[in-house]
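Pasting as-is:
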Amino acid sequence: MLIAPPLSLYIHIPWCVQKCPYCDFNSHELKQTVPEAEYVTELIKDLDSDIKRFNLTNRRLHTIFIGGGTPSIFSPESIHSLLSQVLARFDYSADIEITLEANPGTVEADKFIGFSQAGVSRLSIGVQSFASDKLIKLGRIHDSQQAKTAAQLAHNAGIKSFNLDLMHGLPDQTLAHALDDLKTAIGLKPQHLSWYQLTIEPNTAFHSKPPVLPQDDELWAIQQQGVKLLNQAGYQQYEISAYAQAGFECQHNLNYWQYGDYLGIGCGAHGKITDAENNTIYRTVKVKHPKGYLDKTREHLDQLTSVSEDERPFEYMMNRLRLFSTFNLDEYQTRTGLTAASILPKLEQAQQQGLLSSHNNHQNWQVTPHGHRYLNDLLTVFL
């Protein structure tokens, strides 16, 4: 039986000071003053339309994530206005996790304090590297010292926790350089680290002119030794690219990977909403370009589709298998509305290949270390 899972809200702020050559997100270089007030107005209109469209008046809000782009280019006053209007429309817990992404090159002490006072409880700071030459190649607008300062400001701003976003496998990066980056990040004592390999994506500057990246054996050594370093420092890997001190896992991202529901408002934002009564799972995509999104004669919704029952097993597994924790067939059934029989043969096939392990008479399942290393092979089992 399909049961509505926890509901999160993703808010997309699309502007950046400069487009990074590796970035394939819906972000747009800032050409003029940011229309903060106008955009906040449209975000709330977008939210109200979704609440009405999916009859969400009585759904409790689990988490909020403000991403981009670079949300920290907005003023704390605009973030306060946005959050106060959002929270007025939902029931939520007093300690709701509210994350805001920040670029070290667009923050100062007053801003972090202001974001905290506006209701932000978690910051995600896009460091990417602490090596000056790597930051230049990645097109970042901050330097190493600004990154370190941003982490210290986060500690002092009254924010409950913060994440540092760090890449490895960078152009001309050696094992020693990658581990130095990681040691610097750990030394700044964030409660959470997102540490992941740079990949070259279509429709990016790096795709047109690919940089020289480390070889596979070097990448594997970075991954193996980096995880060991993180574990020794008290960070446990709970998702493919996420490491946290106990109790500081990102609840918003966990809801994604557990096939939870989320509204997506803002330019190009994606959403997933469960209508349990009608056994339907919807996906939404909003108008991508800021000019179109801010056009008052146009609806914010660009696409509305339903996820067929045939698509749900792969969708669930594509998300759930990123996590290191076990999942059970009861969760699969309530999140997809399908029977255990619809997935059990493929789970057993993956187990025979050493990619999954089972417990409690095939009720609980977990990705093996082999499965995590060859995750794409694991996912193809469910296609």
